[in-house]
Known about the structure:
With about 270 residues, the protein is of the alpha+beta class. It has helices at about 120-125, 135-160, 170-175, 185-190, 195-205, 210-225, 235-240, 245-255, 260-265, and strands spanning about 10-25, 30, 40-45, 50-55, 60-65, 70-75, 80-85, 90-100, 110.
Amino acid sequence: xxxxxxxxxxxxxxxNIEFVDVVRDKNFKMPxxxxxxxxxxxxxxxxxxxxxxxxxxxxxxxEWILTAGKTVFVPSGTVYTATYxxxxxxIIVAQFDLVYxxxxxxxxxxxxxxxxxxxxxxxxxFKYRSMSLxxxxxxxWCIYKMYEIIWNAVNCLEDIAPKxxxxxxxxxxxxxxxxxxxxxxDYADMCSLSEPGFRRLFVEYTGMSPVEYRNEIRLEExxxxxxxxxxxxxxxxxxxxxxxxSFFCRCFKKRxxxxxxxxxxxxxx
Length: 269
């Protein structure tokens, strides 16, 4: 039976924590063509790797080169290939299953995590093997430490780097006025950036285009409205800014795995 420790008001629960210490030589490839099974933090202790991520609805295909001392978070379901670029490349991984709720938004897609003392935090999880505790106490200690890593990662990712502060006017407008069909050039003007420059910086910060980001917010709000039982599907789509109901339904199904009618049916049970 799965067990997990629940903090008050915590939006997600985790279980089945695993620890991996891997050493591979140059050119070894580890493909996750069906998507990564568990969510995990990966710290590079020595050497260098290439991470190539497949394109998704939220972000284009991309490649990251990770060197010693770098940390990356990869959520479950992510399709990618890791290629070891140096002999003796060593990574340590702390991974887990999500058993309820959702991960914090900044960890719902692959992220490079500039977390201080990441190696120490992850290695502390390995101490469970030598701890003189009973099975349950040891499990709860591990889960507590994993939550600590998660929240340290969230805190550092939510601290916006100076170059990204330029995006604040557009981000605030999209979050507060997502139902308005603004052209991208308007957002760029808000930030005093050229449109190409705005698009590049936006994708670098959010991992998706401005339109994808806006649609993500719209879909979440539409699901909430439909779930209240007070909105028909078409009414919810129009309220959040989708004028084409067929397009809305396609986007909704891709995002949540079921049609908007699925929300209505579930809510009415």
